[in-house]
Write a structure and sequence with these properties.
There is one protein chain. The protein starts with a helix and ends with a helix. Helix 3 packs antiparallel against helix 4. The mean pLDDT is 93. It is built from 12 helices and no strands. By secondary structure, the chain is mainly α. It has 4 domains: 91 residues, MazG-like (Helix Hairpins, Orthogonal Bundle), CATH 1.10.287; 32 residues, no CATH class; 78 residues, Helix Hairpins (Orthogonal Bundle), CATH 1.10.287; 45 residues, no CATH class.
């Protein structure tokens, strides 16, 4: 028995009478937070470049898939084989340049064909927009990037990074106007446009906005922790320092990176 089949058998036993009461009471919806948590832990391991941790986290994510497959099997809806069959058929259908006689010029043409084929598939027959099918639950920056990529695949895009860079300046100017007017609703609106423009610029610079922001948060957190350490070593409380004193600590923390 291979290890995947063994995992399927273990899950079936956990869900069966006499198995684990916690596992047995789980539903698709109840497992939702665990699926999200495991996904983010995989991303964290990837970002750290920790392949030992990545192996373990991918295993935890695989467990979630097998868990959902078992629940689906018990309901007579689908099992792991059906899930694999579905993705196999999808991959073959969406790669006619590999499994058929379609010719492509490069990766960009592959993506264009992919989107066209998605719209043609029966499961998407009720979708009329190239932007349909993007999960609303995606983190906002990731969803913005995905929307921008899909719009670009049908030709709605700039020629190079100078376009989104100029658009960012335009949106920042509009934000300044909203701030000057003290219009809270307009400020939120324009802030959204600024963030959307930053995501678009990141796409042109081959940077992932979600990863970039996550890295910035990590750097800030590490520097702030060093500030706290330095304050303790200097016998001062950060709460008692004015902004100039805090800035000095910040610069000291940056200097030891």
């Amino acid at each position: 028995m291979n290890e995947v089949d063994r995992l399927v058998d273990i899950m079936a036993r956990l869900r069966a009478p006499g198995g684990c009461p916690w596992d047995a009471q789980q539903t698709h919806r109840a497992l939702r937070p665990y699926l999200l948590e495991e996904t983010y832990e995989v991303i964290e391991a990837l970002d750290r470049g920790d392949f030992d941790a990545l192996r373990g986290e991918l295993g935890d994510l695989l467990l979630q898939i097998v868990f959902h497959a078992q629940i689906g099997s018990e309901a007579g809806a689908f099992d792991l084989q059906a899930i694999a069959r579905s993705i196999n058929e999808k991959l073959i259908h969406r790669h006619p340049h590999v499994f058929g006689d379609v010719e492509v010029d490069g990766p960009s043409q592959v993506l264009v064909n992919w989107e066209k084929l998605k719209l043609e598939e029966s499961e998407n027959a009720d979708r009329t927009s190239a932007l349909d099918g993007i999960p609303a639950e995606l983190p906002a920056l990731a969803r913005a990037t995905k929307i921008q990529k899909k719009a670009a695949r049908v030709g709605f895009d700039w020629d190079d990074a100078s376009g989104p860079r100029a658009k960012l300046d335009e949106e920042l100017a509009e934000l300044d106007e909203a701030i000057a007017a003290g219009d809270e609703r307009a400020i939120e609106h324009e802030l959204g446009d600024v963030l959307f423009s930053i995501c678009n610029l990141a796409r042109f610079l081959s940077a992932d906005s979600e990863s970039a922001l996550r890295s910035a948060i990590g750097r800030f957190s590490e520097r702030f922790a060093r500030m706290e350490t330095l304050a303790g070593e200097q016998g001062v409380s950060m709460a008692d320092l004015d902004i100039d004193g805090l800035e000095r600590l910040w610069q000291q923390a940056k200097a030891v990176e």
